[in-house]
Design goal:
2 copies of one chain form a homodimer.
Chain A lengths: L11 E2 L13 E5 L3 E8 L4 E5 L5 E7 L2 E5 L2 E5 L3 E5 L5 E5 L3 E8 L7
Antiparallel strand pairs in A: 2-3, 3-10, 4-9, 5-8, 5-10, 6-7, 6-9
Chain lengths: ~110, ~110
Amino acid sequence: MALHHAEPGEIVDVRPLGAKLRQGINATLVLTDRLQVFRFILPAGEEFAEHKVHGEIIVQCIEGEVEFSSRGKQQVLRPGELVYLAGDDPHALRGRCDASVLVTIVSEKQHHA
Amino acid sequence: MALHHAEPGEIVDVRPLGAKLRQGINATLVLTDRLQVFRFILPAGEEFAEHKVHGEIIVQCIEGEVEFSSRGKQQVLRPGELVYLAGDDPHALRGRCDASVLVTIVSEKQHHA
């Protein structure tokens, strides 16, 4: 799996990993001043404990099923479903079965007076 | 198809439209100060002529095949593939067959001194 970050205009593969999921690695696919896109792998039963990020975030389920907890409720994300959260919104994820998600984070750019 | 914009934490369906594609409509799914996510439908042979947007953009193919032209080259985007472009980078899209794409635009926030 490529560890380099895509150039503008470069095609990036975010298809399901399928049988290769457990050999897959979390990979940052796009990284710019404002934008970070990465694939995060959640094998069945594994958890990404509650955390928050400074910028707005989109989590899109690529494969499997993910328990997504935020704002006091737990929902199941299935392939082709996404959620977004405002910056600093605490959330947690857990794989109900082998799963991977595509995460997009919009950076809060630092502006200096 | 919902025309309302998702609230934070609300699950948004971006699965392929399949047989309903030609009855589908372009829909903005998420809209905040910084972030716009919409589904754009490209029936076979239809074109979204060259244009540019001010912010960084990600185009992800949901279904079908899309000719994506930018930076002097034409590529084919297939389901599960995405590209990003820097702001103001001209690009054009054309459906090679009935297709839909998920477009994410990071707004350039206006800062006033």
